[in-house]
Structure formats: C-alpha cells, structure tokens
Design goal:
Blueprint lengths: L3 H25 L4 H14 L4 H29 L5 H7 L2 H15 L2 H21 L13 H18 L4 H10 L4 H26 L10 E2 L2 E2 H22 L5 H23 L2
Helix pairs in contact: 1-2, 1-9, 1-10, 2-3, 3-6, 3-9, 3-10, 4-9, 5-7, 5-9, 6-11, 8-9
Length: 274
C-alpha cells in the first residue's frame, strides 16, 4: 500500500471509525472497540499486514485508542453524578485480573482463534441488541461482593480478547440486575478505563518482537493508527454523552445490533476460509 489514494483512503476510514467510536463511547458507555477492531482489520489488510498478526494488531490498537476515550467519557459522566462508584470500586481488582488472564491467552491464541472469539461474542451482542428488552431482569439488584467479583473477571477477560472497553458486557450485567440504563452507561465508561490500560500493556507484552508487525508498532499496538483516531474520538465522545441523556436509543441499538451481526458473519467467513 504505497499510493497516495490508498493512504488517503486509509486516513479517511480511520478518522471515520474514530468519530463513530467516540460517539458510541459517550452514547452507550463503550470504548468503541466493536467498531474499531473490524475497521482496523480491513485497513491493516489493505496495508499488506501479515494475517498471522493482523487480528492481534487490531485488538491491541483498539485497546490503546480506548484509553483516552474511556477516560474522557468517564469524566463527563462522573461530572453528572451518574456513575455507580461503589460497583466500580468492587471492580478495581477483578476487572484487571480478567485482563491479565486474557493477555496470557492473547499471547498464544492463533489469529483464526481470535477472530472466532470475536465472531461468537459479536453475534451474541448483536442478538442482545436486536431482541433484548429493558424489562428483562435476572435480579432486582446487583449481586453481593462475590458475584460482582466474578462478573468483573468475566467482563475484563472477554472484553480484552475482543479489544472492546467492556461497556456492552457491563451494560448487560447492570441492566439485567435492575439498574437503570443511564447509570449502566455511565459506570461502563469507568470499566473501560480498568480494561484498556492493563489491556494495552498486555498487548504490548504479548506481541513484543513478533514478526510481521508494521512500522511504528510496539507489540500489538500500532501508534500511527492510534495517533489518527484518538483526536477524533476525544472530540466526539462528549457529544455522545449529551445525546445519551436526551435520546431514545432503540433505533441506534437496532442499527448497532445489525452491524455486529454483519461483523460476526465477516469474521466467521474469514475463519472458515482458513
């Protein structure tokens, strides 16, 4: 990929993904990784990145972008007093522990295996967004300390393998436990901070000196892509926060759910194609 048109197309695609990711970060309390990972996967493919590391690089770079996006979104939601700080404090050890376990898996899993994980989880997320209802409940309130700790480990583990900030999974956990969606969205922004910072360090460690990485990469994090996307996500995230407190999000949930199903199908096809 050396032509000016190709480079311009890459920059436009990354900037567009950053805008959507920033909006989603504020609107749904997610880090935007569900958008970024498939976009990175396609753009890195256009750049001729080796398939053996392309998915790992997509996940690691996504986690790096989520760090400032989640921090900005969390600060905005906390200023509104919407964050459940008690739940977040109960996650302080559990979520990073799940991230560490995921980093160990990340270092040894194949590209196809990582794509399969993303495809299955994206399918489940898409189905939940399409068919889930706010009235669904598993409990009237969040579980006790042991239940929160277990949930935190699971959220940290699965989110890291997908390269997402944990908002989708934490939103589901909180709303099924009787908490209002706005509180779930706000708290999930803080979960993104707990996942992305150790997640980036794990991606760097897991990919240290890996062959086939592009220029300006540290482990499985490409800093060129990060530098292009972060300014856009930081600028757009507060817009999503404001919209989250005003809009009926059902149509957005439907659109995002369909997108996740398409992404799942795309990765599943790539796995089956070998």
């Amino acid at each position: 990929m050396t032509g000016f048109a190709d480079i311009a197309l890459m920059i436009i695609a990354l900037a567009g993904a950053g805008a959507v990711a920033g909006l989603l970060a504020g609107l749904f309390g997610i880090g935007g990784g569900a958008i970024l990972v498939p976009v990175f996967f396609q753009v890195f493919g256009l750049m001729g990145i080796d398939d053996a590391v392309r998915m790992h690089l997509s996940v690691g770079t996504s986690l790096a972008v989520i760090v400032p996006t989640s921090l900005r979104s969390f600060a905005s939601h906390r200023a509104r007093g919407a964050v459940d700080m008690d739940l977040l404090r109960s996650y302080v050890i559990a979520v990073p522990a799940g991230v560490v376990i995921a980093a160990l898996v990340f270092a040894s899993i194949s590209s196809g295996g990582l794509r399969l994980v993303f495809a299955v989880l994206a399918l489940l997320v898409g189905l939940k967004l399409l068919f889930g209802r706010d009235s669904w409940r598993l409990a009237d309130d969040l579980p006790g300390r042991a239940g929160r700790f277990s949930a935190g480990i699971g959220i940290g583990f699965l989110s890291t393998l997908m390269g997402i900030g944990g908002g989708i999974l934490n939103n589901t956990f909180m709303t099924l436990s009787g908490r209002p969606i706005h509180q779930a969205v706000a708290t999930s922004a803080g979960v993104g901070v707990l996942i992305s910072i150790p997640g980036v360090l794990g991606a760097i460690w897991a990919g240290w000196a890996a062959p086939g990485l592009p220029v300006m990469s540290t482990g499985y994090v490409n800093w060129i892509a990060v530098a292009i996307i972060i300014p856009v996500t930081l600028a757009v995230a507060p817009l999503g926060v404001r919209a989250a407190h005003r809009l009926d999000k059902r149509q957005l949930e439907l659109g995002f759910g369909l997108f996740m199903l398409l992404v799942s199908a795309r990765f599943m096809v790539s796995v089956l194609a070998g």
